[in-house]
Amino acid sequence: MAILGFLRDFPLHGYDLKNRVASLAGHVRPIADGTLYPTIKKLEDAQCLTRRTAPGSVAAPRHMLEITQIGTDQLRRWLRDPEPGFVTDDNKWYVLLAFLHHLENPREQALVLARRREFLDQPAQLFFDEQGAPIPAERLESPFRKGLMQIHRSTNLTEIDWLDRQIVDLNRRAGFSVRQHDGV
Amino acid sequence: MAILGFLRDFPLHGYDLKNRVASLAGHVRPIADGTLYPTIKKLEDAQCLTRRTAPGSVAAPRHMLEITQIGTDQLRRWLRDPEPGFVTDDNKWYVLLAFLHHLENPREQALVLARRREFLDQPAQLFFDEQGAPIPAERLESPFRKGLMQIHRSTNLTEIDWLDRQIVDLNRRAGFSVRQHDGV
DNA sequence: ACAAGATATATCGACTCCGAGGTAGAAGAC
DNA sequence: GTCTTCTACCTCGGAGTCGATATATCTTGT
C-alpha cells in the first residue's frame, strides 16, 4: 500500500521508494531489498504500476515506476475498506493515514477515521491477576506497567481529540459539497 | 519474551497465556494458536519452562507451565540487552516495558529506558518532496499527514517526559542502594 | 588505466507467523 | 441420550519478510 501511495504522489524508482517507505514504517527501519523488489514485481504483474527504464542520474540505470489507473483503484479500495490490522496496529494505521488524502471523498475519509475512533474508544485492559480479573492502573506494582497505561491513555486522548476535530471538519465539507451538488 | 514474562509472575497454562499476550501485543489481537504452541514447545526444549499436566477446571486437561531458572536468566538477558526492534517498534517496546520490572536492578532498568529515550530524541522526518528534501509539517498539504506529525510529536513528548522522570528516579534509587551497600 | 565505493536492481534460502483444520474432554440444551 | 458449545492443545501448509549474495553502472581517487 505504501508503494502505491507514494507513487500516487509522483513517479519514483525502487531505491528511492525504499528510503521513503523506510522513514514511514515503524520508524526509520529500512524495508529489506528482498521484500521491496518482489513486491514491485507483484504489483507490476497485477498491472498496478508500469516500469520505464531510465538512465541513472548518478549510477546504474533506474526503473522509473508509475502508478496506473488499476493501481489507483486498488489503492483507493485498500484505503476505503482497510483490513482490521490497519485500524488496530499503530504502525500500520500511521501508514494508512499518510496516504488517506488519496481517498478524495471527504465522507469516505471521515468513515475511515471513525473506524479508528471506535477502536480507540475500547477501554484498554492490559493486565490481569491470577484469577483473570483486570487490575486497574493504580493497583499495579510495576512502575513500568503503570507508566505504560498512563502513556497509552494520554496518547489515546491526543489522537481521539484530533480524530474528532477532523471528522467534524470532513463531514462539514462533505455537507457543503452535497448542498452545492443539489443546487441548494 | 512475553510468554516468559507472564510466567515469571505466576504459572499459567497455554490457553490463559494466549489471552494475556493478546491483550498486550498490538492491542487485543489474539496470538494465533499456530504461533503460541510451537513457541511453548521451543521454550520447553530450551529448558526455559517446565510442563505439568493438570486436570482442566472446566474442560480438557491443561498443561500448567512454570518458568525455570534458565528461563528467568533468558528473560533477563532479553530485557537487559534488547534487540533494536524492541526499542524502535512501539508495539514491541510496550511489551518490553510490561516486563521490565523483572530486571530487578534499577541501574540496568534505567539503561534500557535511556536507549528508548535516545531513540525518541531523533527528529522525525517522515515526508520528502520530489527532490528528496524534507517537508516540514506546516508545508504538508494533506491534513492527515499534518495530523500524523502532530500526534507523533505530542505522544513522543509525553513519553520522553515520563522516561526522564523514571530515569532520574531509578538512578536515585540505584545510588541509595550503592551507598547502603558501601556502608555510607 | 584501474581500483574502490556509491548507486541500483534482483534472487535465493531460511525463518517466522498465521489461519485452517483436527483432536479431545466436559458442561449444558433439548 | 446425543448435540452443540466451550475449553484446551496441536500440526501443517502457505504467505510474507529478511539477510546474504550477486550483478551492473557510474564516479572519484591515484
From TrEMBL, chains A, B:
Family matches, as InterPro entries: Metal_resp_DNA-bind_regulator, Tscrpt_reg_PadR_N, WH-like_DNA-bd_sf, WH_DNA-bd_sf
Q: Which residue intervals define the domain Transcription regulator PadR N-terminal in the entry?
A: 3-76
Q: Which Pfam families match?
A: PadR
Which protein, by its recorded name, is this?
PadR family transcriptional regulator
* Source organism phylogeny: Bacteria, Bacillati, Actinomycetota, Actinomycetes, Glycomycetales
